[in-house]
Amino acid sequence: MTHGQSVDRDLLQSGQQRLDALGPRLTGTDAHHAVVEEVAREFVDLGLEVHRDSHTFERWDLPQRADGLRIELPTGPVRVSSAFPYSGLTGPAGITARLVYLNAKRPSWSKAKGAIAVIEVPHVDLPRSLLVSEWGPMVTDETLRNPVLSATLLGPKLEKARKSGVLGVIAVWRGIAPDNALGQYLPFTQPYHDIPAVWVAGDEGAQVVAAAHSGQQATLVLDATLHPGTTTDTVWAVSPGTSPSETILVITHSDGTNGVEENGHLGMMELARHAVTQPHRRSYVFVLTTGHLRIPAVSEHGQATSTWLEAHPDMWKGESGQARAVAGIAIEHLGALGDTEDTVLGTYTLDATPEPELLYATSREVHDIVAPLWRDIGSGDRRIVAPGPVIHFGEGEPLFERKIPAVALVTAPQYLLALREPDTATHVDIDVMAQQVQSFRDLLDALDATDSAAFGSVVGRTVFAKFSALLKLMQILKKAKTAVRLY
């Protein structure tokens, strides 16, 4: 198949460099606001009208000083891997109390009333078949591994801890390399808990567990801050088509922890620049959604884009007087390079080769459209997957839930949610990014030129498949907790 003119690689690179210079763009921060306003200005420069959906919430900020995040044992300081986002705060003096070790399988939080609870969290591999489905037969019985999964599924239940009178929580990663644990902003989907919690790993974790078993006291410092009345905007624009009763949604999100999470707007804006250079049949709706890293502040159900969809049914729902979204594209984590973890040696390194892509197509017909268009980035065996029986990762999920045929890129290296300081070189290959953006641009043209009946019906999850997957998942997690052994 003949591909169109190449995207501007230099433009992508300069955009990535601006992201690197900003560092983490946590929801509602100045760095996050800068990305949103940059995209808004680009929409205006393209002659598109900018629309805004504003949200107000109470922002929790990480400590600004190095000594604002620490653990002090009688034997000396312990390096903290990261803070548990939106857990709580201690003030600069911290809290000093006895350490109480809790069994990971069935933690009795009341045993740590008036104390600091210590609980171990295993870093697990999960069967690929529980997380994604295949359009063809499963190639191998492989597993997927990511701290996002471990922290979300097995992390401490802070609401139960707070209600039981626990003063603070130290979660000790098991089976994760310390360099992999460092800076992980996890889990990122929970409400504010009003109880301080942190993660430790490796030898530091062993020290904390040993101190808890001997009933030692410790000082936990999480000098985070709360900022009520913080505002954050979703910005969006429409490139009108010649038949505006049909739309194609192009979405990504603006907040992120590093230059991979999230750089999707660089691809979205390339598609917007492409859109305004030529007539197109459907109207293209470009949505830069906010709140991906603060979902409880913007969404009552589902990923952050759900809120935009509920607010603007006229852009997609297809009822009387409304446009109908015939297809969607979700762009996340462009150009991501891989990483390697050796859990036996406890080592973690970044790779020079692309991370295998996680690319969804939500109908068989859409799979058949995207397969010949998608460029090989050299990451080995590439499979375009279907949503799994339990979950669809990323901001493509709201499109899937509303049965809008879609393609979503949401590649997930282990460092995806790890915070990176400003001017830290991002683990991105610009050539890979350019190939992915070109693939999306060709896909957008193809979706516009194809009759909507050819997109098929979005694959659904059967109740039996979901129940079976959840049952198997519960068994795996139970086994992982049982297998946690004392240091």
Automatic annotation (TrEMBL):
Domain of life: Bacteria
SUPFAM superfamilies membership: Zn-dependent exopeptidases (SSF53187)
Protein name: Peptidase M28 domain-containing protein
High-level lineage: Bacteria, Bacillati, Actinomycetota, Actinomycetes, Mycobacteriales
